[in-house]
Design brief:
mainly beta, two-stranded antiparallel sheet
Length: about 120
């Protein structure tokens, strides 16, 4: 199976996840109390993952198809049997998808995909 990204009838199959960087915001709130050394706290769950996914493609047409598909408004499902990065995500409006020709091989293409994990 390797790695696939799906949304409805669309399936994207990169040859490799070339990079993955994610972070999440903490959720608990710390309330400092004047005159006390220990604060009050409100426990809440952490936020969902946000970050950038780098996908490697061997064929320019496949990279362009993925770029166009990931530009559509949709919830995408990332599935991988190679990594523990499976999730549902959207591409947030405030960040851009970027497509780059590999400067060394001049043959492979890298698509950088900003993501916000969502609940399916």
């Amino acid at each position: 199976m390797a790695t696939t990204i799906t949304a409805g009838a669309t399936t994207i199959t990169p040859i490799l996840i070339d990079g993955f960087e994610a972070s999440r915001s903490g959720g608990s709130i710390v309330h400092p109390i004047l005159g006390r050394t220990n604060p009050d706290i409100t426990l809440r769950p952490a936020g969902m993952k946000t970050g950038t996914l780098s996908l490697l493609f061997a064929v320019e047409a496949d990279a362009n198809m993925a770029w166009n598909a990931l530009s559509d408004p949709a919830v995408f499902v990332l599935s991988s049997d190679e990594r523990t990065v499976s999730m549902s995500f959207v591409v947030p409006e405030s960040q851009a998808l970027s497509l780059k020709l590999d400067p060394e091989t001049r043959d492979h293409w890298t698509l950088s995909v900003p993501f916000q994990e969502v609940t399916p």
